[in-house]
Every structure is written in C-alpha cells, then in structure tokens.
Amino acid sequence: MLQRIQSIYLLVVVLVSGVLPFWVALWTDTEGQAVYAQNDILYSAAFLAIAILAFVAIFLFKKRKNQFVLNRLNIIFNLFLLGFFVYRSLVLSGETNVSEKGIGMLLPIVSIVFLVLANRAIKKDEDLVKSVDRLR
Asked: What is the span of the domain harbouring residue 68?
C-alpha cells in the first residue's frame, strides 16, 4: 500500500537526499564559491545511497520488518554523513578566513527526522496487525 503515511515520509527523504544537495549549497569555501554535493564524489555518493535506500524502502511495504530495518540502516548512514560534515566544519573552520556553513549541511538531520517518523508509523502498522491477529 503505497498510500500509507510512511511512504510519504520516505518520499520526502528521497527528495531531500536525492535532489536538494545538488541544488542547495552545502557550504561556501574561503574563496566565496558555493560547494555542492556534485563537487565531491564522497558526498554525492553518500546522498545518492541514502536516497536509493529510502526509495527501496518505499516498495518494501509488504515486509514491514525489513522496511523498519532498512530505515534504521539509512539513519546510521545519515549519522555518518552528518559526522563527515561536522568533522569538515571543525577542521576547516579554524582558518583565518572562516568559510560559511550552508543549509545543505542540515539535510541529513532533516532526513533523520523523516526516517524516524516513518519508523514510528511502520511500528504503529505492525502493532495494528498484531492486535488484529490476536482477535482472530
């Protein structure tokens, strides 16, 4: 059932991780040039992997436990990506010309929030199915 709320949440994660990093600047370097995800292969691969995992999770609606586990794995990947961003901002921000952090560095946090909401909805569906099975 693709019309469930967790499918909407996962679609938002696909859009946030698959489209926005290539339109929104991740940060601005010391020369004033905006750095996007396509400028670094590591960041673009990480964002695309997160988007692909969320897209695959949308179509696992018949296997809610696998969908739940895949979303948890996706949350871990988002935390690693966020860790890369924090490391990059802490290492390079001690320059004499401080580079600006862009809104794109917050995209993993947005993805994590929607993945947690999706997992909460999946858990609610799983509990509903278990309660109906008890009544039989």
From this structure: 5-135
Alpha-carbon distance of 82 to 45, in angstroms, equals: 14
Number of domains, the chain: 1
pTM score of the predicted model: 0.85
21 in Cβ contact with 104 (< 8 Å): yes
pLDDT tens column, 79-128: 999 998 888 777 765 554 555 677 788 889 999 999 999 999 989 888 88
Question: How many Å apart are CA 19 and CA 35, to the nearest integer?
Answer: 15
Residue 34 sits at the vertex; the CA angle it makes with 92 and 29, to the nearest 5 degrees, is 20
SS3 track for the chain? CCCCHHHHHHHHHHHHHHCHHHCCCCEECCCCCEECHHHCHHHHHHHHHHHHHHHHHHCCCCCHHHHHHHHHHHHHHHHHHHHHHHHHHHHHCCCCCCCEECHHHHHHHHHHHHHHHHHHHHHHHHHHHHHHHHHC
Specify the amino acid at residue 89: S
Cα separation, 123 vs 101, whole angstroms: 36
Question: Residue 122, CB half-sphere, CA atoms under 13 Å: how many?
Answer: 28
